[in-house]
Amino acid sequence: MGETLSLPVWMLLLPFIAAALAALLPARLARAVACLAMVGQLGLGVMLLRTFRDQPDLQGVASWPMLGIFGSTLRLGVDGLSVFLLVAGAALGLLAVLVSGAKRPPAFHAWLLLFVGTMAGVLVVQDLLVFYVFWELMLLPALVLILLWGDADRRKATVPFVVVTLVGSLAMLAVIFAMGAEAHARFGAWNFDLDALAGVVSTWSASARCWAFAGLVLAFAVKIPLFPLHYWLPAAYTSAPLPAVILLSGLMAKLGTYGVLRVAMPLFPEQAVAWAPWLAGLAVVGILHGAVLALGARDVRTVLAYSSFSHLGWIALGIFSLTAEGLGGAMLQQVGHALVTATLFILAAWASERQGATHLSRFGGMAATHPWLAAALVFAAMASAGLPGLNGFVGEFLILLGAWGLSPWVAFAGGLGVVLGAAYLLWLLQRMLYGPAVQPAPTGPDLGVRELAVVLPLLVMMVLFGVRPGLLIDRMKPWSDAYVLRFHKAVPQAALPTGAHP
Amino acid sequence: MSHVALLAWILFAPLAAAALNGLLALRSARVPVPVEGHHLRPMDRLAAGIGVAGPLAAAVAAWSLGFAFLARDRSLRLTELDLGTWFSMGQAHVTWLFRVDPLSLVMVLVVTTVGTLIHLYSVGYMAGDAGFPRFLTWLNLFTFAMLVLVTARDLVVLFLGWEGVGVCSYLLIGYWFSDAAKAAAGLKAFVVNRIGDLGLLLGMFLLFWSMAPGGQASLDIDLLSAHVTKLSVPLATAAAVLLFVGAMGKSAQVPLHIWLPDAMAGPTPVSALIHAATMVTAGVYMVARMHPLYHHAPAALAFIGSLGALTALVAATVACTQTNIKRVIAWSTVSQLGYMFMGLGAGAFSAGIYHLFTHAFFKALFFLSAGAVIHALHGEEELGRMGGLWSKLRVTGPAFVLAAAANAGLPPLSGFVSKDAILVATWNAHHPVWFAVGLLTAGLTAFYSFRLVALVLAGPPRDAHLAEHAHEAGWAMTLPLVLLAVGAVGAGVLEWPHELGGTLWFSAWLEPVFYPSLDHGVHANAVVDIILTVGSVAVVATGAAIGFSLHARDGASTGAPLTGLQGLWATVKRGWHVDEVLERVVVRPVVFSSRAAAPFLDFLLGWGARGFVQGLALAGRGLAVAQSGLARHYAMVMLGGLVALVAWAVLSGGR
């Protein structure tokens, strides 16, 4: 407990240190530093996974002293929920740097590293105030990356992004201060430690807890995004530069579901149970709404943006099913979707580069001119469509299984997303890859060695996690089992859905 | 070799072939070598060798296992291959457990034997195609997925095979992807199948959670079968129907049959292997595999039989009117699948599986000989340009006639035996309506089968130029025809009726599997059986005679045989407009919401959000803190929020 430096702490510090370095160095060196830092980050992540014991507790714990009035110590560490997201963040960071291109200025890489660092911060801190600071800081690199290096209509994209996010965040801030103040009133000192707060808020009146839960969920739902708070998403995803999109859709979206699991539900379990069916309903609406929008979208990036929105609905659905199966599926899907969405965005960007367009009417027949790119795209799309044997399936299966435990109708409605998902993904492939060659024909060579080196490991992982999801899910299971158990102890059995069980 | 090792060979030889051919396909896609005529390039030869060796090795292993089983006691005919856990979470434990019992072995033998022959045929049929290695890759991969489907002991692993064959089907239908219509047919097949798959998934969920209170939540087929009687009948019926929705998609039952005729866009060997002999029978297999559940849910069985009867009749009528040689056979397949479900619905699981077995031979033969005709005519598929080919195609011609006769159910061919078994079963199970529909369908089947024979082979050629240049294919294509013809003729021996001096070997083989679901009380009356058989043969012979004589005349058209029928003929030819109706009721609303309704909803949401922002901005001006710009709004809102919240926090803290 007494350590100040542990692997998770290093993974928090490294991106910030590297960002400072990258900002000061010339462009070529900056990219090299960024690349090295992310390799190091991933290496640390692998070391963390090797030392991680498959137990539900917090590991790699470090304690830092806090400023006098804000509680005594800040705990940092990872558990079964956060460890894989932290490593996924490192992997996505590396991917983002690899595909960023040599022409980017040093500042670009510095902001990219900051983005990775702030998200690592959200994942490792166990103090709600510091969590909030990182949560807000995370917005800054995202915004800067879009505003300075985004597409033509980036300004239009950032306004809704900022506004919606801020509204949510303020609600969260309000709740956090209310809880801290309660702790202050109770113990005579400010305290924002998550474990400490759980005891504090349990004495609040039902309506106060209800409002507090709503405030927290609002903040997290914006990031997921949960219907109807997805308003900002398509513009932000389509105007952001590719490396930023990888981090936005790959990790930042999952921090929304992470927040629900880490903060909102443990603090207010009764409210979570009471609201779960409604939130699951919103998740299902999001799954279907996103899929339908993806079907109608005419730009390759918009299709993928809506697809991401739809898939995050699956994750939320798994969580709000309140079953062990659904939760496990959601946790698996958090990592699995990061892999798939990043791959799809990268491949789509490469295809658009060669076609010189992102509008789907300008695509066609690419399977004949660029067979390897097409093969990779078909493969990744199948993984995204939840084909068994690839990594999307097990998560989706468990989520829907859990959803049936909540309500068969929810499972049925969510299941329609399986059909629509296949439809919009295959329709995307049809327009990009098949049919006669278009004019002007796509230019440039098929996937080169460097591109293959980036994308091949991702495709291999899709098979690996599809066939042996136990590599992930078995290590998440102790945490999720303990979580469900603790949750069920906190809430009277009668309040739980029929299918739920400890 | 041990039985487990044989099972491993059966599964992984095709997978290894698919992997190797996949590498070849990737390589040859990047470095195109020009193709000259119908010749195999060096890389294609390698691909052909690997592609045929994979399923052949599996077939050899399967037959070895079969003979090993025969030597064993009936209760010991079981082999399992356990490859560990797939995933485990909550109560859901799924293991990579593969099992061969007599039922699975029938399927494995069909898939590997017929499969190997079709792979060999493909080498001849696809020679000279630029994507040759890719074609064999998908075919090998399909074989693997199909074998997973029929050997899985867990429903989730079965589902992997189920979707795996679906994706291979998608890739193979759209194999000539530069033709947008062909690629779109693949898309349609996959999406329609996904609707069925959703039903299958929901059925699994229902079974899982209904078993959960007893602590027996599992999707292991054997465990489910053992505990299924503990379910209430309504629950079992719901689960059985949901699972059957999956079968409706995969096995093309009304109204989810619409993808199969369009799937003929794929190369003909694909139609033979996937869309006739194996994949489309997966639904029949699945229902038979889950027979304890269906036995426990008689209402679900009645539903299956009724829908099967409807499908059989409707598809047979459509088959009578088609003018494309492959579409006739495709609709015929839909109809025969309906027949199989009718048999299952009557509780005659082994008769249903037996029809699946014989159908695999004669329908594969039908498609492959049709493919040889198309090959001979340089890709022509329209009946309007065929005719007069009998003298040109000395191997294909007789093979085509045999296939048509077996499909029609003429004695003593295999189709006669299996179809008769189903008809007799429906009568004995007291379903006179199904029997009548079956009889009518049998007549129609004979009619369109011999209409096809007459239009393709008999009379003077409708296109003299094409017929003149028609030529028989090479041995790679004719050898499979001969071997399949042997199967189509001889498979009837395995279940030759008692009344005609035969032995029911096939049902005896399956009895250990179906024993719990057999109706031991029903004793068929031999005299009734003979009357039924004679009656059905008479109907079939009449249908065949009319079909042949109407279309073998000089100048016989491919249209309605009687002028008064033309209106009805046009409706039937369009598949009774089911496609158009579904297009209007399902596809258009979805497209409308994707293009208009959902974006409009988002527009409204955005409008609301903008209004909210402007409200904030006004409030900001009121405070005279903010001027304009993003950063200032940000700071202002933060500050305002902070003040308000800290105030509230302190107040509530002081409570």
For the biggest sheet of chain A, the summary is:
2 strands, antiparallel
How many whole angstroms does the radius of gyration of chain B measure? 29 Å
Strand fraction of chain A equals: under 5%
Kindly estimate the percentage of residues of chain B that lie in beta strands according to DSSP. under 5%
Q: Low-confidence stretches of chain A at least 5 residues in length (pLDDT < 50)?
A: 498-502
Count of alpha/pi helices of chain A: 19
- How large is the radius of gyration of chain A? 22 Å
Strands across the major sheet of chain A, in which order?
1-2
Describe the protein in words.
- The complex is a heterodimer of chains A (502) and B (655).
- Chain A has a domain at 269-502.
- Chain A has a two-stranded antiparallel ribbon.
- In chain A, helix 9 packs across helix 12 (300-320).
- Chain A is mainly α and 502 residues long.
- Chain A has helices spanning 7-24, 27-51, 83-98, 106-124, 128-149, 154-187, 194-201, 206-223, 233-239, 242-267, 269-296, 300-320, 324-355, 366-369, 371-384, 391-406, 408-433, 449-467, 470-490, and strands at residues 59-65, 73-78.
- In chain A, strand 1 (59-65) and strand 2 form a beta hairpin.
- Chain A contains 19 helices and two strands.
- Chain B folds into four domains: 1-153; 154-573, no CATH class; 574-615; 625-655, no CATH class.
- The model of chain B is unreliable at 624-628 (pLDDT under 50).
- Classes of the chains: A mainly alpha (502), B mainly alpha (655).
- At the A-B interface, helix 6, helix 11, helix 13, helix 15 and helix 16 of A face helix 1, strand 1, helix 5, helix 6 and helix 24 of B.
Topology record:
The complex is a heterodimer of chains A (502) and B (655).
Chain A: H1 7-24, H2 27-51, E1 59-65, E2 73-78, H3 83-98, H4 106-124, H5 128-149, H6 154-187, H7 194-201, H8 206-223, H9 233-239, H10 242-267, H11 269-296, H12 300-320, H13 324-355, H14 366-369, H15 371-384, H16 391-406, H17 408-433, H18 449-467, H19 470-490
Antiparallel strand pairs in A: 1-2
Chain B: H1 3-30, H2 42-70, E1 79-89, E2 92-100, H3 102-125, H4 132-151, H5 155-173, H6 180-211, H7 221-227, H8 233-250, H9 259-262, H10 268-277, H11 282-289, H12 291-296, H13 298-321, H14 325-345, H15 349-376, H16 396-408, H17 414-428, H18 432-457, H19 464-468, H20 475-490, H21 505-514, H22 526-552, H23 566-573, H24 578-623, H25 630-653
Antiparallel strand pairs in B: 1-2
Helix pairs in contact in B: 1-2, 1-4, 2-3, 2-4, 3-4, 3-10, 3-15, 3-20, 4-5, 5-6, 6-8, 8-11, 8-13, 10-15, 13-14, 13-18, 13-23, 14-15, 14-17, 14-18, 15-16, 15-17, 15-20, 15-21, 16-18, 16-20, 17-18, 17-22, 18-22
